[in-house]
């Protein structure tokens, strides 16, 4: 019959009306009534923001972030996408652990970071936005570490992933020492 929000508003209005009548007791000042109504309106707006998935303290949407890791050694060649299969964090469900692709849920500024460790050979990986290479990361020798990071402006639906650099030969990534993370900094 009534939604939860409608019921809450009804109760708030009834409570405010009772409070105004009981506290006023002959005081006909409209200033107090206006102040109470302004606070009530502010509270109603806050309830509306909360129900729409927005954080009222700073008026930003809920966090969008992921953190994933490889669980086993992976050999990559050509322009293979690296699939980080163990997901620790995925608020907003924007990272797909089956494809290794992050899809931007909202337009905004994002930060991404990948750590990597080679096994047996050098390793060459790239940070991709849709089909464009943004930057490269590599490790020079067996069990050497490398990293890739970048701050990127994305449109809703843009895809970000870590791929093998196609000009390099087949190479191995050490599992448990390679991770991929990203998060929304601000909405545009």
Offer a few descriptive terms.
2 helices, alpha+beta, 40% strand, 188 residues, five-stranded antiparallel sheet
Commentary on this structure:
It is a single chain. The chain has 188 residues and is of the alpha+beta class. It is built from two helices and 14 strands. The strands form four sheets. A five-stranded antiparallel beta sheet has the order 5-3-14-8-11, with no helix packed on it. Strands 6-7-12-9-10 form a five-stranded antiparallel beta sheet, with no helix packed on it. A two-stranded antiparallel ribbon has the order 1-2. A hairpin with a 4-residue loop joins strand 1 and strand 2.
The secondary-structure element order is HHEEEEEEEEEEEEEE
Radius of gyration: 26 Å
The unreliable regions are: none
Helical segment tally? Answer: 2
Strand order across the biggest sheet? Answer: 5-3-14-8-11
Label the overall shape.
elongated
* Straight-line distance between termini: 38 Å
- Beta strands, count: 14
What's the mean pLDDT score? 81
Helix content bin: 10-25%
* Coarse structural class: alpha+beta
Biggest sheet record: 5 strands, antiparallel
- The fraction of residues in strands falls at 35-45%
């Amino acid at each position: 019959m009534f939604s939860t929000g409608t019921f809450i508003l009804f109760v708030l209005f009834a409570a405010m009306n009772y409070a105004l009548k009981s506290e006023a007791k002959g005081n006909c000042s409209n200033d107090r009534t206006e102040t109470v109504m302004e606070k009530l309106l502010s509270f109603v707006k806050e309830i509306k923001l909360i129900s729409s998935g927005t954080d009222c303290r700073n008026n930003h949407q809920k966090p969008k972030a992921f953190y994933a890791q490889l669980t086993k050694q992976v050999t990559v060649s050509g322009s293979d996408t690296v699939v980080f299969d163990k997901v620790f964090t995925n608020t907003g469900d924007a990272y797909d652990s089956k494809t290794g692709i992050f899809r931007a849920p909202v337009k905004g500024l994002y930060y991404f970071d990948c750590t990597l460790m080679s096994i047996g050979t050098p390793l060459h990986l790239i940070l991709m936005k849709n089909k464009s290479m943004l930057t490269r990361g590599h490790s020079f020798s067996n069990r050497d570490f490398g990293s890739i990071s970048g701050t990127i402006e994305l449109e809703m639906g843009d895809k970000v992933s870590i791929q093998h650099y196609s000009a390099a030969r087949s190479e191995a990534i050490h599992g448990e020492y390679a991770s991929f993370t990203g998060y929304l900094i601000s909405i545009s």
